[in-house]
Amino acid sequence: MSDTNTALDCLIIGSGPAGYTAAIYAARADMNPVMYTGMEPGGQLTTTTEVDNFPGYPNGTDGTAMMEDLKNQATRFGTDVRFGIATKVDLSKEIGGIHKVYVSDGAEEQEVLAKTVIISTGASAKYLGLESEQRLIGGGVSACATCDGFFYKGQDVIVVGGGDTAAEEATYLAKLCRKVTMLVRKDEMRASKAMQHRVNGTKNLEVLYNTELDEVLGGMVVEGVRIVNNQTQEKRELEVTGVFIAIGHKPNTDMFKGVLDMDETGYLITGAKSTKTNIPGVFAAGDVQDKEYRQAITAAGTGCMAALDAERYLASVEDMIEA
Length: 323
Ligand code: NDP
Known about the structure:
This protein folds into two domains: 8-124 and 249-322, FAD/NAD(P)-binding domain (3-Layer(bba) Sandwich); 127-245, FAD/NAD(P)-binding domain. Helices cover 26% and strands 26% of the residues. It has helices spanning 17-28, 63-76, 131-135, 145-148, 164-176, 193-200, 296-322; strands spanning 8-13, 34-36, 50-51, 61-62, 80-82, 85-90, 99-104, 109-119, 123-125, 141-142, 156-160, 179-183, 205-208, 211-217, 224-229, 235-238, 242-245, 249-251, 282-284. Helix 1 links the parallel strand 1 (8-13) and strand 2 (34-36). The structure holds NADPH dihydro-nicotinamide-adenine-dinucleotide phosphate. Residues 128, 160-166, 168, 185-186, 190, 212, 247-249, 291-292 line the site of NADPH dihydro-nicotinamide-adenine-dinucleotide phosphate. Its EC number is 1.8.1.9.
């Protein structure tokens, strides 16, 4: 029978570390999970080069290869991985209710019914949108200092942004790099006072206020940047090999607006020490509900939690029906 008339035990939306870890656990618990990969199978990690900080890879690994490993592990236990994008949802508010998720593979849309839904749609780093920035992503332009900072040891880099993420990334990079220059577009930082204090106390970190990135210079790899003072319009070039964009993330939650509880920036809200959303049988794991840590390993951890939460929920619904 097709999904349209049989409710799945577990539907997973999104294929980053959270989704695949949820799939491994759900498959091993005989929940026969079906995963829809989303637009970018493998998620954000497929846009980085090397991953050096995921436990279990003593020599590091390639982000895309790691996601392939996770996929193979999930399918080994029977996860049905399908290419498709969830476009809208009709979630039941009843305990034991059946959720409807509409998915599209680009050609046609179908309705998928599921008893539990694990949302692991992730978040996308925001970029400035400059042509040169987009062209050099993976060639010196990055949106993740903890992922890629190591490769710029002893070199000069810039960080764009003035929020907590930018401040945190800049101070992290300052420990590895020769010099870090932070470009802040206003005459003040948005980051918390504590983070600003840390930035100001870091010797090899210079903050340029009222300054924006005009262009990333270089053919195949970053060789420098042209920056502009937005008060005087004065432009100048800096020789750097790394450009870290830290202007915020956007959680991929548009389709859940008005349905699931989210904070003012769109991150799904889950219960303390759980992955439960405000709808029974619907769980959220990974960056879609985490603006604090945003690491592959923390995403994987919450993916595991979501599968365990889903399994317990299904068991409690079955107990209710039997009683
Ligand atoms: P924020 O939205 O807080 O900050 C984004 C920064 O990028 C701002 O300085 C903003 O400038 C700047 N920016 C945005 N668009 C552009 C652009 N086009 N060109 C240049 N600069 C731009 O995002 P964060 O990721 O820093 O933080 C998100 C949330 O996560 C916050 O609530 C933060 O407090 C929290 N967080 C907490 C941490 C912690 O507690 N350890 C660590 C990291 C994040 P402007 O101010 O001019 O708008």
